[in-house]
Design goal:
This protein is of the alpha+beta class. Helix content is 54%, strand content 22%. The protein is built from 7 helices and 5 strands. The chain has helices spanning 2-45, 54-57, 60-73, 83-106, 115-118, 143-153, 155-162; strands at 80-81, 124-133, 165-170, 173-189, 192-201. Strands 1, 2, 3, 4 and 5 form a 5-stranded mixed beta sheet that branches. The chain is globular and about 110 Å long.
């Protein structure tokens, strides 16, 4: 009788031991299941693609380079970076981005606000603009290439990209000058950034 009691008691303890092991094993995945989705959700909500600074995805030097690559394919001479045109481009960017981009938004094709006055004294041939709203900014986008593609689709902007000569009238004389200088400038102000490409001649 005593032997049977010991066997039964031992069996009960063994069964309880197995139950405890099973419960313990089940509780670990439950905790992991609760933690892992939280971690993954945080990663998804926080953008799993590392955010790039706006300067990385909107590189003015790279824009000029890809514009020159496009000009080369179209048989136009590359644009040599011009200090004076960089000054003009930077002034344009600051001017157009002022007042929460009001001047930029009001400027139309072939009628960019203030340009004739601002371009006086510069060897100006044309300009192309690209404005970005930073409140909806896609940090993974290649804005340099996107800017070129958008300009190519617009006849007036594509003309700026590919222009090889410009005619200048001095009195009764018309001179034909090679468009082979340029510069790209960028200004960031609050919720917007504006890029300006200026082309010119010697």
């Amino acid at each position: 009788m005593r032997k049977q009691t010991i066997i039964i008691f031992s069996s009960i303890i063994f069964i309880l031991f197995l139950v405890l092991i099973k419960v313990g094993n089940n509780s670990v995945p439950d905790r992991v299941t609760k933690i892992v989705p939280t971690i993954m959700l945080t990663a998804d909500e926080g953008n799993p693609v590392p955010k790039k600074d706006v300067n990385e995805v909107f590189d003015v030097e790279n824009v000029l380079q890809i514009v020159n690559q496009y000009r080369s394919r179209m048989g136009a001479p590359e644009l040599v970076k011009s200090t004076s045109l960089c000054e003009l481009a930077q002034n344009r960017a600051k001017y157009l981005i002022a007042d929460n981009m009001k001047a930029f938004n009001e400027s139309g094709l072939e009628a960019h606000i203030g340009m004739p006055e601002q371009a006086k004294g510069y060897n100006f041939a044309g300009e192309a603009l690209m404005g970005i709203d930073l409140t909806n900014f896609d940090h993974s986008a290649n804005l340099d290439q996107a800017s070129l593609e958008n300009w190519k689709k617009s006849p007036s902007h594509n003309k700026v990209l590919t222009r090889t000569v410009i005619k200048i009238r001095t009195g009764t004389t018309i001179s034909e000058l090679a468009v082979n200088q340029g510069c790209v400038a960028k200004t960031i102000d609050g919720e917007h950034t504006l890029m300006v490409l200026i082309t010119g001649y010697k």
